Amino acid sequence: MPTAKRLKSGSQSKSRETQPRPTIADLEGESEFAQLARKHWLKPTRRTARVKVKNEVLKRDIWDVLEKDGFPYKLLLVLEGLQTLESYLWPGYSEDSSNFHVLLIVLITNVKAREKLETWGIFENRPAEFSSLFTRILSMSLDQTLSQTVRTHLLCFIIYAFQSLDWASVRKECAPLVSIGIWHNLSTESKRDGKLAQALQLRKTWKAAGKRYDSADDETKARLRFERAWLYTLVLDFLRLLYAEKREDEHVLYCERFVEFISDLLSQLPTRRYVNTLLQDLHVLPALRLSPMFNDEANGLLRDQCSLLSHYAHFAIDDQTGVQHSPTEAYDRHCADLAKLQRVSLQHFKDKLTVLALSNYGSIDQRNELENLLETLTDEEIRRLATLLELRVEYPESAKVSIDRPFLMEVLLSTYEKRKTFQEIARDMSIVPTEDSLFDQGLLRTDNYDGSKPLALPKLKLQYLSVGDFLWRALVLYRCEAFYGIRKDITDTLKRLRPESKRPGETAFAGISKMALSISRPSILEVVPALVGDDKPSAVNAEISLDVRRLTDNIRREWDSLRPDDVVFLVAVDASLPNAVSNGGVHAISEAQKLGLVSVRTAEIAQTLDDKGKIIRDPAAYFSGQNRSPTRKLQLRLDPRTYKEDMDRASRGKPDVYERINLVIRRSGRENNFKPVLESIRSLCLSEVPLASWLHENFLGYGDPAGATYKHLPNRIRRLDFRDTFLDWHHLVESLPGKMVEPEADVSSSFEPPYVLETVDKPPEKQVAKPSKKRRRGAEPALNAEIETYRVSTYKPPSTGPYPIDAPKLNSVRFTPAQIDAIISGTQPGLTVIVGPPGTGKTDVATQVINNIYHNFPEQRTLLIAHSNQALNQLFAKIVALDIDERHLLRLGHGEEDLDTDGNFSKHGRVGSFLEIRDRYLQEVNRLAASLGAPGAHGNSAETAGYFNSVYIQPAWAKFTEVARADGASAADIVQAFPFHIYFSDAPQPLFPPEGDRETVLDVANGCYRHISKIFSELEDVLPFEILRRDRDKANYLLTNEARIIAMTSTHAAMRRTEIASLGFHYDNVVMEEAAQITEVESFIPLAMQKPKNGQMALQRVVLCGDHYQNSPVIQSLAFRHYANLEQSLFSRFVRLGIPVITLDQQGRARPSIAALYQWRYPNLGNLLHVESQKEFQSANAGFKYEYQFINVPDYEGRGEAEPTPHFIHNVGEAEYAVAIYQYMRLLGYPASKISILATYAGQRTLIKEVLAHRCGRNAIFGLPKIVTTVDKYQGEQNDYIILSLTRTSRVGYLRDIRRLTVALSRARLGLYILGRREVFEACYELRPAFELLLQRPDKLVLATGEMWPSERAQAGEEGTAVPGEAVMEGVEHLGQFVYEMTATRIKQQQAERGQSEGKGPGVGDYEQDALLLEPVAEKVWDKGDDDDDDDDEADEGVGYTAQSGEIAPDTDASDESAADDIEIGGAAEAQQ
Predict the structure, then answer these.
(1) Mean pLDDT across the stretch 698-710?
(2) Please, are residues 1067 and 1046 in contact by the beta-carbon 8 Å criterion?
(3) Fewest C-beta atoms under 10 Å: which of 658, 748, 1132, 1325?
(4) What are residue 201's phi and psi, to 5 degrees?
(5) 15: pLDDT confidence band, cut at 50, 70 and 90?
(6) Residue 266: which region, alpha, beta or left (left: phi > 0; alpha: psi -120 to 50)?
(7) pTM (predicted TM-score)
(8) At CA 375, angle to CA 369 and CA 381, rounded to 5?
């Protein structure tokens, strides 16, 4: 691989500088394109008039301008931002449109695809014209007279189309291009016949295609011939370019894009099925490897892409059926190919190839051996051998590629050599980084990715070849993304440390970083010999010493918080290396050399020791003692494979890596989970199809989209007890619209819950012969008019005991019909996908589903997964409030401490809880024994209690049962025979109703016995905890035997998957909350955390709750997020695949008027009754005319947005305005806990916090709001009043992703006040529906003075209605003056109330006017943080900033979501874990 090029500091920002973004001046100012748009398609009066496109405008004013400068991306972005495609090019397109018209559509569509904006929906309204457009694009892609740059743009359009097969219109155009018709281009008919003979279905498909062609008219035949030949012609042209003598950069870029295209085709079964055979017949891979372009040293990307293409081309799968071959099956097929080679060799070349024909397979499937055996053949014999093996031996003239001896030899070798399977590749892949893997050229390319070139990375797509293929892609991508983050952290740390060399061979550090400590070389303690059959040590243990005396207490505590299994990095830095480079010692340098970095080795902490060698179990507590030593030792586990390679190099005379190590670097715990997650993915990759069979096809993206839903599964449950789901009969009937609800035969009218619903099967109807058993393409199936019928019955819930605590906890939520539909589906077996728009109660639905499963299937266990600890705790707290026994609940991970419940639900907390229950119940046993007069120490242990139950309690109850069952036994007789009167004497009296009949008395008695039985049942569960001695054994027993509802974050599941599965842990159901925010691989792992039983996974239910219209998983790198699509969630992919979803359709969070701001994203979203009728939703917000308002914030002191450090964007004017509104609200009496301030950028969030601290932090009048955070961090949360700062003034930025806008607008219940620059957001096409509503109101803040919170004024129904005390704030200074005067008045009132004279006590002098009138404090904030570099690029705006390894950062408050909550590695880091 070529030497890695230098990666400059801030490389992401550099890539953005080379691709500048348009500003609002480009879109709204006097730029050439802006004037053109206003003249032709952005006319204020034109709305419905038909668009007339003038060709001279397209050619002279747009195309020529673009072509002159080589189609600069900024100008294309300007055209896209001016709505050129939506408002001009597409409405004006017709079949007669010019080629320039078509090409401009292509260019702007590509821009939208690159910017991740919705595109295909624009073309949906004119399907015939879209088909015409697509055909013209295909034809132009073959036109060699066009420039290579233009052809590259056309190819990019086609690539994007094949990535969007979920759109029916696109799929209709793409499918014929990769159909069986392309096999007309195979080299020989015999080869094609051999392929068709492999499967009966293939022969049928081929014949059907032939019939379709024969019966077509001339025009259709021409189209079919074009579709057959299009891909073949394109491949030949690609081969021509590979071997062209003149190679320009645009030729190389086109070839790179073409390799990306055919890799995409081979990576999905529908497009791979026939294409792979054609590409192998055309020898694309051998031709590519031998081409001059491939072997040009500068084209490293093309070589890496070729490796990826080879992986897909030779992936071990049946191209027709999609069945993945096991390693054994793959080897058998390889041997069958070799057998054919041997037979041909023996039959036709016996004299020269006898050795080859008689050799064993193992001796001829290696490239070198096979090449030596074939060398004896002449050129003509090589050609004849290839012909006999049905390999192509010539290309058409147009390809301009000659097939000579070296070419044919490469074809033969690549056809018959043995390749590693993807399992072998995954097994050998290192998951711990070294300096070589961190600075690998392929990984460095991702730093500068801006969408202009492809990458050699697999993509997460709509469909996968197999589960193994998905896991292999996830492993590669997750590993790259983890290494990307590690390299950035190490680079940042070294820049802060500033290594320098004052003496030869010595390196000192002039700077400081809290994430690194200087150390002496590590000591190798032990190298454990290799296991049998392995060539590497089974373990390598080392030790390093840390000296923390120079660290502050906070940083020292962070180092002391390192735990066993945490990963640290041992780094060798040689400060003389950059000097040697600068003196000409090295020709090409990498970023590693530039920083003086020599080597990086990964180690895991085994244990911590003090300076005397004593093992420390809790370092944080131990070293906080009085006599703590500044020295501690870390014993480490090194990676055995890397260590062996290091020792091998040292034995060859290379320097010993470990002798030069002089630095240890740690990372934040959230970011450092990469190793266990990668191990989990790899172990799954090496296992056999770890997925339930009923979910398998849907997961891969094939088959019937509804095939995994309960109505299509054979194990659908016909009768279910819905307990407290329905509140009454009316609720039951209204919750099942369109369905028949019938009481059971013995009930004549409605009755009270609980309800048991039984599905009534209709008798099978007689089948009528159909004229054709095949449904024609495009025809819809007939609608099923059958009405679903439920038969409803009830029962009397048994008494659970006489004490109030025994009463069951019942649901009080009146679920909507859509929620009931989701609950019914979730309770049934199968896949349930629930789309929950903001405020629609998807957490309540998930909770009720869990409750129903718990009570209907007491033998089943449920795994509860969420993206963040916060979401998991919210869901878990609701479960705790239900009628679910706490001993069956378990919360895994480190977020349990934030759970707002009385009990401790962690593993160790549950064990302690069991022991507490034991003590409490043993006291009850003693009391019970005393009530019966039973002598002995029955309450000594759970074991003795069990004996007491069998000797005393059960016989007493049996005796009572005999009396109760006796004929003629009256209620009085039963009461008299009851043996536990004394024990229940402390229960509410009378225990038995005086006038109760026999049934009532028996019910009370049975309830009392259930209370007693529960005591012994729980003590029986405690018994193993008395026997087990080790805490780990107790915790594992709890997980595998006792817990029935186990909750954890998706990252914890990924980290602990192998460990949990090895315990024999089994579960039946998975409920996933926030599923749209969880990466696809982290969604998959919880589905595969158990070992199969009898070859089948026990999984019965999967319930996914989420909202794909809100934020997706957070991925740092633009390359992984956009190119590799690592931000794809399983939830969003299921939605794209058309899997049936249940959309909750009534929100109960916000005022209807506020909900209207985002209801356009959810067409059927309505409002629950209480948000339209309750007083708090009808009353106005005190002090404000409007309940929501967009407030235009012009430049403040001549400035809008600023970027003091890279990617750290803030806006002083909006920060001051937000704080002023908050101060105003507090002065009116609004509780601080009901106000949240949100920003779209972490820099703005930090600035707002600084302004709040300056103006409000020490002032009891104001205090601080409930939270100040970013929009991304606030998803899933809500508050009554939201102040939102949009921050940007030059362009829209990342908020153009309407998913983030949806989150931002849907957090407020009663009041939403948005600060932003009107002209920036008003012009954005994607945001138009929301801003058209927002801007119907004035864009200056309108107050209603003279009110205090809460207001009694009704919310104004019409926009023009005046309110008492109406006052318009002209700007931030005006509002600041207003707040200052109110504050001064308030202070005087307080003084008067306290009897203080004016000027004494906490007077106005404490709140100087120059402070309250919004002095620009922001300059102070950044003095100390200018060297802090952000971890995110432009497209990751809003994910945030943190000085990950700096001591001084703009925001160092780690007590809330500020200092370290901004960096999350693609779902790999567990939020709040």
Answers:
(1) 94
(2) yes
(3) 748
(4) -65, -35
(5) very low
(6) alpha
(7) 0.90
(8) 130
